[in-house]
UniProtKB/TrEMBL annotation:
Keywords: ATP-binding, Membrane, Nucleotide-binding, Transmembrane, Transmembrane helix. InterPro entries: FtsK/SpoIIIE/SftA (IPR050206), FtsK_dom (IPR002543), P-loop_NTPase (IPR027417). Residues 261-462 form the FtsK domain. PANTHER family: DNA TRANSLOCASE FTSK, SPORULATION PROTEIN RELATED. One of its GO terms (molecular function) is DNA binding. The lineage of its organism: Bacteria, Bacillati, Actinomycetota, Actinomycetes, Kitasatosporales. The chain crosses the membrane at residues 39-57, 63-84, 96-116. This is Sporulation protein SsgA.
């Protein structure tokens, strides 16, 4: 293919030179240039006549020469047939017939003379016919329209079992060759091309990832063959900072480049004008495939935008994302904190969709993040501008999600993945192996976008759609040997780009200082969650959700605090817990009861609390859990409490159900686990 491209370029330059001359010399040069490819057959005819004439002078009427010339003619014909075994059947037969006819005439001319009997007539009539047959063949191979026939590319297709395919006009771009292919009707399909890609790569001496086939959606026998001769991804490119600092999250995120040098782009929110849907993203790849750098590329692009907030769960204790953590609106390190975050996202979805619908948005748009000053997006019935605070886009990031899925179940994200897009929420799930024993099929089907890095060849079907694999995508060829190499499938990316490999930018030690500066910028200039999202999170997480830390401090701003009764005042206000407001500080303490003193040796322990006192103790335990940020509890969390108070876990389970009826607890997706409703919300 590379030779074809160089030859085509040279011929094009020569054509331009010939067209530049319009005088007689230029015309002669042009005609000679056009005639050159057709001269060899005629030279062969002339050579045969000359050989017959000269041979008759030496071997006329020689029996021995007759035997030798006959054997030579047969041997030459056989050698031609053998040498043409790698070409098409038509070319092989045409070559053998031509050599047999020419050598037979030369043998007869050498023995009997070129003018004997019918020999001159055969020469004058048969010679031009043979020469013209080759000229016609050449014209059919290289037509005026530029359609390819049995040229170099046709021979290449014959080698891989596609001899009857027709190649259209080849388009040559920098480091990219695109050739339209039309297969034989009724005999070949696009599947035949996809099955031959590996053999085609072998014939061109290229890696299998350098050749892709994009079928025409409207035809079963047409498509485009894309060849990238040079791997421009071999050299890693260091990350140099965000591509669009201060821009909108609706603008493309630049996370790397493709093998032809073009940028690798990704969109999260939808765009109704462009016909692009909002999306969730799956980042998948084996250990060592560059998943961490890929996530950093995506996260830095998100944090550099002005109308988005990020909630992140990372069971790896933010080993990769530590410098960026101050810029996150909410971050937890797995465990119960992740359980609470998942429940908070579920609570935020209806709150955000309700706000979008009330303000006339069918989906999240950048205008939704601004103060609502347009009557078109007003929640007032009179149609005047409402002035409501905006609601930024929300990215819910689940790093090392296999850990969370093991704890919460394989369908932990199913509801979020199915409903969050309409609420202006993008879910990012990162894990090594998105197999169906880790993630439910419903969740996987609800993640439209995927960044597929190197994987085990047997796991390719878990990451990429079958059509992309058929088109030539092969992440199993990389494994963990080429960190950052990936295929990206996402709305907004042209489908012919899906099987094109890309590579994300590389993060080094020098990048750490830039990441810290970016996190500081996000603290000062990034969006806040807004009252709708913050109150929804606080209704589930209570004090566990605090919002992003204020610039220059380690303590976050009180984003969870709401308005109305039950609000805890931070400056000069009451500091009494809401559940203690009914207590009279002037009342006398209750008198001692039997069993309140310490037991003597050999005696039973103190008295068992009454049912009412036990409920109060349970309420106190729930308040302690809430103050510690442990918002998801179950009977096993009360083991020490049961031992201290002499109650069993079944009794605790019954009391937890009573607390749920009273509104202090809410059930979670896991059986036997309850979410504490913050006391502030209950009040």
């Amino acid at each position: 293919m590379r030779d074809m491209r160089e030859r085509s370029t040279a011929e094009q330059q020569h054509e331009e030179q010939l067209r530049g001359a319009s005088d007689g010399a230029g015309v002669r040069a042009y005609l000679l240039h056009r005639a050159k490819p057709h001269l060899p057959p005629w030279l062969g005819v002339g050579g045969a006549g000359l050989a017959g004439a000269l041979g008759s002078l030496k071997w006329s009427e020689s029996v021995a020469a007759g035997v030798g010339l006959t054997l030579a003619s047969v041997a030459l014909t056989g050698a031609t047939w053998w040498a043409a075994r790698s070409t098409s059947q038509q070319r092989r037969l045409h070559s053998a017939i031509t050599v047999a006819a020419g050598s037979a005439w030369v043998t007869a001319a050498c023995l009997a003379g070129p003018t004997a009997g019918p020999l001159p007539d055969l020469y004058l009539m048969g010679g031009p016919v043979v020469a013209l047959s080759w000229n016609v063949r050449m014209l059919m191979r290289r037509s005026v329209d530029g359609a390819a026939g049995e040229g170099a590319d046709k021979g290449l297709l014959e080698k891989v079992g596609l001899a009857r395919a027709q190649i259209g006009a080849v388009k040559v771009d920098p480091n990219r060759v695109t050739a339209p292919i039309e297969l034989e009707a009724g005999e070949q399909t696009n599947d035949d091309v996809t099955k031959s890609l590996s053999r085609l790569a072998s014939a061109l001496d290229l890696p299998t990832t350098a050749i892709r086939y994009q079928p025409d959606p409207s035809s079963a026998r047409r498509g485009e063959l894309v060849i990238v001769p040079e791997d421009m991804l071999a050299e890693a490119i260091e990350w140099m900072g965000p591509s669009n600092l201060g821009g909108s999250i609706a603008e493309p995120l630049v996370i790397g480049r493709y093998d032809d040098g073009s940028p690798l782009l990704l969109w999260l929110p939808g765009d109704p004008e462009a016909g692009r849907n909002s999306t969730h993203v799956l980042v998948a790849g084996v250990s060592g495939s560059g998943k961490g750098d890929t996530a950093l590329n995506l996260l830095t692009e998100i944090l550099s935008r002005c109308d988005v907030v990020v909630w992140m769960s990372d069971p790896k204790m933010f080993q990769d994302f530590g410098p960026l953590r101050p810029g996150l609106d909410w971050s937890v390190e797995g465990g119960s904190g992740t359980e609470v975050m998942v429940e908070a996202i579920k609570a935020a979805i209806p709150a955000r969709t309700r706000w979008l619908g009330a303000h006339g948005y069918r989906q999240w748009l950048p205008e939704a993040a601004q103060t609502q000053t347009s009557p078109k997006h007003s929640c007032r019935k009179d149609g005047t501008a409402c002035g409501c605070p905006g609601m930024p886009f929300l990215v819910a990031w689940m790093e090392e999600a296999a850990n969370t899925l093991r704890a919460l179940g394989d369908d932990a994200f199913t509801g979020i993945a199915q409903e969050a897009r309409s609420a202006g929420i993008a879910l990012v799930v990162s894990l090594q192996r998105p197999s169906y024993d880790q993630m439910s099929t419903s969740t996987r089907a609800s993640l439209p976008s995927v960044i597929a890095l190197g994987c085990d060849p047997r796991d390719e079907g878990f990451s990429l759609p079958e059509a992309v694999l058929d088109a030539g995508a092969h992440p199993g060829a990389w494994g963990n040997r080429r960190p950052g190499y990936c295929y990206t499938v996402s709305p907004g990316i042209p489908e012919d780009r899906y099987p094109s490999p890309g590579r994300t930018f590389n993060f080094t030690v020098r990048s750490v200082s830039v990441l810290e500066v970016l996190a500081s910028w996000a603290q000062r200039n990034g969006a806040t969650a807004g009252p709708v999202t913050a109150q929804a999170a606080a209704s589930v997480a209570g004090q566990l959700y605090t919002g992003r830390a204020a610039p220059g401090t380690d303590q976050p701003a009180p984003a969870w605090a709401g308005e109305g009764e039950g609000e805890i005042e931070m400056d000069g206000g009451p500091l009494i817990d809401p559940e203690d407001t009914h207590l009279d500080p002037e009342a006398d303490l209750p008198s001692a009861e039997p069993g309140d003193d310490a037991p003597l040796f050999g005696q039973d322990t103190g008295r068992k609390p009454s049912p009412e006192e036990a409920r109060q103790l349970l309420a106190q335990a729930l308040a302690e859990f809430e103050s510690e940020g442990r918002m998801i509890v179950g009977p096993k969390d009360f083991t020490d409490w049961c031992d201290a108070n002499g109650y069993s876990r079944p009794w605790v389970s019954a009391r937890l159900k009573e607390a749920a009826l009273e509104g202090r607890l809410e059930p979670t997706a896991q059986t036997g686990r309850w979410r504490i409703v913050p006391a502030l919300t209950a009040a």
